[in-house]
Every structure is written in C-alpha cells, then in structure tokens.
Design goal:
448 residues; 19 helices
Length: 448
C-alpha cells in the first residue's frame, strides 16, 4: 500500500487546506448579511458544477491516465485559489468573488472523485479496497477537523489571505504526491479500428451502464432521493449554528464532523465493512438521518450538536466507502471513470435543488412561522421552540424523518439489500506494483 499512502497523504493535505478555505468562504458571505440564502447559495455554487460536469469528467478520466486526471484536478484547484490570493494581495478581492471561485472548484472536484476512485484498484489489492476506501473517506473527515480550526484561526489573526495561501501550498503538495507515484496498469488502450467517439457520447454511456444493471440502478435512484431529502436539512446546519451560537460553535460542529469521519475510517480499516454491503449502507443511512438530522434538530447547545453530527459523520464514512467498493468490484475497470462520474451525477443532481429551496424556505417561511408559532409550529413548537434558528431546526427534523423513510424503502428492496449476491464481483485489475524496480517494461509509459 506504499504508493497509495503517498497519494493519500497528498490528497489529505489538500483536503485540509480546502476545508479551511470553505470555512473562510462561509464566514465571508455570512458576514455580508447574515442570510441563510447566501450560505446555501455558496454551497449550490460548489455542488451544482460537480454534479453537472461529473459524467463529462468521468468520460475524460477513462480516456487519459488516472495520474493525469488527478493532476488536472489538483492543478485546477491551485490555479483558482491562487488567483483569489493574488487578487487579495493586490487589494482587488471582494466578497462576491467567492461564488465564481466555488463554481470553478466544483468543476475541479468533478474530475477528482472519478479519477481517485478509479485509481484505487491500481494501487491496492482487491481485499484491501474496503479499508482503503475507508481511509479515503477518513482523509476528507480528518480535513474537517483541522481545516475549520485552521481557517478560523487564520481568519481571526490574519484575515482571508493566509488561508488562501495555505490552500495553494496544500494543492502543490498533492501534485507532488501524485507525480512521484507510479500507477500499475495506468494505460488507456484503444481497440484497433474502433471509431473515435465523441466525449459527450461517452458521458452518456456511463449513465446507460448503470441503468442496464437493475441493482446498480435501484441503488443510485435510492441515493438520489435520499440526498434530495437529507441535503434539504444538512444545507441549513451552518446557518442555524451561526445564528444560534456564532463562528466558534460552527468551527466546533465542523470539527466534530471530522472526528466522526476519522472514527469511521479507523473502524472501516479495522473491520473491513459489512459483509452485506447493501443492507449495511441502508442501515447506515437510517442512522445518519436519525442522528444528524432528527436529533440535530431536537437538541440544543453546542455539545448536543457536536455529538449528533459526530455519529452521523461516522456512519457516512461507512456508507460512502461501501458504495465505492461496490463500483470498484462490480464494474469493469475501463468503465469506472464514466460510472463514477454517473454515480456522482445521479446521486447529487438532487442536491442543488434541495440547496436552492432550503435557504429561501428557511428565511421566508419556517423562521417567521417559528417566531409567530403559526403553521407547522402549532404542532412542532413544543418540540422545537420559537427562538431564532427554530425554523431551520424544524426543517432538519422533517428532513430526517423523510430520509429515514426513503432508506427503509431501500432496505425493503431485494435488488439493493442483496446487491452483493445478485451482482457478483468481477475479476480484479492488474496487481499493484509495490517496488519501483518491478515491471520495468511499463516504466516509461506510466511515468510519462
């Protein structure tokens, strides 16, 4: 696993730097007007490009080496954040610029996930996939520990400029890690005489592949609906915490997300994941909804928020790692870039819709009703209260109930619950190269 750990460490550092910048972006837009809509719009600017461009990015990933695709993603992030840093130190930085920056970073993320996920089978053995995917999810969660704390510290002491520079350095570190590692079998071979397909046609093929296989189709449709319901609530956690307790509380909550994710990664590394991945994923989603949404909306105070979101983050790590392993073991490697791109598109295309709706509903419907005790709050008032932020807490509660119902529907579906039985594993790709001297005949091609 040596090559994987080099790539993993670089990506973990860049994720930490990006988390610090995301925290700075949230504080920047919140300070301009204290509106939930502004915060959810920022999230929308990041998520919508990632969802929309993922099929196209997946098709590109399958046409080039995985190393090149990862370098494109990291270099793109470095260029975007570096441009913001340059604007800041030239005295030309303004708050509105974080929105187009979030859009461009979302496009970079659209390349990063299918490239990294499809590269993992080239770096580790098949029996290490569950644990490796847990480590990848854990790296993202670990970034949630240090990133917001670092971002809050840098903002308090120096402002947004040093935060941007830290992210620039982290992207550079990730690029170095990808560049010095060789990926076994990282070659793209075209069939002799095969016609050159348009990139848009290849993008659609990833979607068609998923829908040709009933278990994968049903699983992705379930995830799409779950995300629609859950993100309707999750998008409001940051503005709710900011409104009720301020920047320090938000940093603590974000750090708890990281702690939970790291705990989930360690659990995944030691355990290896559920034997029945389909059932395990659906039960994990039920737990996420009950802890991270229902309980999050009901409890009050920073301690309660941190505990509930920690449990949800732990379960999310297990769910995401299991989902990646399913694609890595049941989809031919030459299709994995397109399929991972399609997975992101189908599972997250509902997310921007939820984000676009959640903020205005909170500002103009739920918060006013909570303050007056009217509408739904004639019933929910005794549970949620009427203090500022109660409207958003009610939305978390309702989203959690809806997400739990959707996950139970998935658990009742045999095509999802028994996906490991109904869809056997395929043959693994070539074994990873552990020593730099092995497979010398492939060295020049892989290092190009």
């Amino acid at each position: 696993m040596g090559p994987f750990l080099l790539v993993w460490s670089g990506q973990a550092v860049s994720l930490a730097g990006s988390a610090a910048v995301r925290f700075a972006f949230i504080v920047e837009v919140w300070s301009s007007g204290e509106q939930a809509t502004a915060v959810t719009l920022l999230s929308l600017c990041a998520m919508l490009p990632q969802a929309v461009f993922s099929p196209l990015a997946g098709a590109v990933v399958d046409r080039i080496s995985k190393r090149t695709a990862l370098q494109i993603a990291d270099a793109g992030g470095l260029l975007v954040v570096g441009s913001l840093a340059l604007l800041h130190y030239l005295g030309a930085f303004e708050s509105w610029q974080v929105y187009p920056a979030a859009v461009l970073l979302g496009v970079c993320a659209a390349f990063q996930f299918p490239a990294l996920a499809s590269a993992v089978p080239l770096l580790v053995r098949k029996d290490q996939l569950d644990r490796t995917n847990g480590l990848l999810a854990g790296a993202k969660s670990a970034a949630g520990i240090g990133g917001p704390a670092l971002g809050g510290l840098l903002l308090a002491l120096f402002g947004i400029g040093p935060t941007l520079l830290v992210n620039v350095a982290s992207y550079a570190f990730a690029l170095v890690g990808v560049r010095i590692v060789r990926f076994a079998g990282d070659r793209v071979t075209a069939k002799p005489g095969a016609p050159r397909r348009r990139i848009t046609a290849d993008s659609v093929e990833g979607l068609r592949y998923l829908f040709r296989i009933p278990s994968l189709r049903d699983l992705i449709i379930n995830f799409c609906v779950v995300n629609l319901v859950m993100v309707f609530g999750f998008a409001l956690i940051s503005p709710m915490v900011l409104l009720r307790a301020g920047n320090g509380a938000l940093a603590a909550v974000n750090t708890s997300v990281g702690v939970g994710g790291v705990a989930g990664a360690l659990l995944m590394a030691a355990w290896g994941g559920p034997a029945n991945r389909g059932r395990g994923m659906m039960l994990g989603v039920v737990g996420m909804c009950l802890s991270g949404l229902v309980a999050m909306g009901l409890v009050g105070g920073v301690t309660g928020w941190c505990l509930t979101i920690l449990v949800a983050a732990l379960l999310m790590t297990l769910v995401n790692a299991s989902m990646q392993t399913i694609v890595q073991t049941k989809v031919p490697h030459e299709w994995q870039g397109r399929v991972f791109g399609a997975v992101i598109f189908l599972s997250q295309i509902s997310v921007p819709v939820a984000m676009a709706v959640a903020g205005p509903l909170a500002d103009h419907v739920f918060e006013p009703q909570a303050a007056r005790g009217t509408g739904l709050f004639t019933v929910l008032g005794p549970l949620i209260g009427d203090a500022p932020g109660s409207g958003m807490a009610a939305m978390l509660f309702l989203a959690g109930i809806g997400g739990t119902a959707v996950a139970l529907w998935g658990l009742a579906s045999r095509s999802i619950r028994d996906i490991d039985i109904l869809l056997p594993d395929l043959d693994a790709p070539p074994e990873p190269v552990e020593q730099s001297g092995q497979r010398g005949g492939e060295r020049d091609e892989m290092c190009a």
